[in-house]
Design brief:
With 193 residues, this protein is an alpha+beta fold. It has one domain. It has five helices and seven strands. A hairpin with a 2-residue loop joins strand 3 and strand 4. Helix 1 packs across helix 2 and helix 3 packs across helix 5.
Length: 193
Amino acid sequence: MSSTPNVTRATSDGASWLASAGAYPRSTLALWRERPDAPVVLPCGTAFDVVSAPAIFGRRMLDRLWDEGPGSGPVALFRGRTLLFAAPGTAQRLPSLLTWEEWGSHRTEAVPPLPCHGTGDAVTVPALGGGDSPAAAPGSCRWLVAPDTRHPWLPGPEVVLWAAVRAARSAVRISIFPPADQGAKVYDVSRRR
């Protein structure tokens, strides 16, 4: 059972932190006051970076962060992807850590690519209310862990790598033995004298 917090609505402090990522924070806050159900596109690289994972793998990473690690910062779900908000600079450093971990050489559904969004990129941020209104379309943007403070703790690249490796290990059984030859003849030698 996961101990991930059930915070699906951003607080006013969380909204202020999100808005601080943009060039015009007051305009973003005014838009949210007028339309609290509106998702907004915000730039990455100053207040946060974002690591994008397929929804199920991202949920496994989130569970590892909360069950075995330090927890997470805000986390959103958008178009079948889990968006983990990370410390600025993570998008620059994490790809080299993943390469060092030989992440790409084990590419399977259980070890997916993890695109990183940093300086020069932008992401869609869920509505403050979480996007869980009855009118919200399936697969729409919503918070799994909404921002609730002006200075949220954000995992850095090493913490995100740790969570990804643990999530992959939990999804894949790794053996040092090669797979058995299905066409091989097997003899029972246990009864021989």
